[in-house]
Design goal:
Layout (H helix, E strand, L loop, with lengths): L2 E8 L6 H8 L5 E6 L2 H4 L11 E13 L3 E7 L7 H8 L4 E6 L8 H9 L4 E6 L9 H8 L7 E4 L4 H22 L1
Parallel strand pairs: 1-4, 1-5, 5-6, 6-7
Antiparallel strand pairs: 2-3, 3-4
């Protein structure tokens, strides 16, 4: 497959979207990280005491797979209050990688639901945090209410190879979906 594709990287606040894009991008990624403020504290639940910044518009990066397919990665803000911007970012997207954190799977329900509402094909990548408990695939699929054909992979957003594999899983799913539709 050659060409270019717009891909969303979605998930709740603190799941690793900015990290994943920064890890795989072959260009200096654009990041709109801002210090979390007192005003936002009333609306946003802090994920961890060490998390002091959050994406307020988008993250952007680019990666070329196989020397021929360019993925333009758009990371969405994780808070519900940014949903209007999130919908704008989804326009023209070929698909999405939904990052989840097993320490708080419930936080991922909104992002996955928004993808389904917008009819954006997606795969799920469980970001393996050092202090997260591993779960088997069937339990994760059940907890996230995933359809059987939805790809589910484990990745570490801090590791290049792992993050690229998650993106390859998504692209393979998109190719398969497009092939079945034609």
């Amino acid at each position: 497959m050659a060409g270019a594709a717009k891909i969303l990287v979605v998930g709740p606040m603190g799941v690793g979207k900015t990290t994943l894009i920064g890890t795989v991008s072959e260009i200096k990624p654009l990041s709109t990280e801002a210090t979390m403020s007192q005003a936002g504290a009333r609306l946003d639940t802090k994920v961890r005491p060490s998390k002091t910044t959050t994406t307020v518009a988008l993250d952007f990066g680019r990666i070329t797979l196989g020397g021929e397919l360019v993925l333009y990665l758009f990371g969405t803000p994780g808070q519900q209050r940014f949903l209007p911007a999130w919908k704008d970012l989804a326009r023209g997207a070929l698909g999405a990688l939904a990052l989840v954190d097993t320490r708080d799977l419930e936080a991922s329900f909104d992002a996955i639901g928004h993808l389904e509402d917008l009819d954006v094909p997606f795969s799920v990548a469980v970001n393996a945090f050092p202090d997260s408990t591993p779960h088997n695939e069937d339990d994760l699929r059940s907890a996230l209410d995933l359809l059987p054909h939805t790809p589910l992979v484990i990745c570490d957003a801090r590791e290049h190879k792992s993050s690229v594999q998650a993106l390859i899983s998504l692209v393979s799913h998109l190719i398969e979906t497009l092939t079945e539709a034609s």
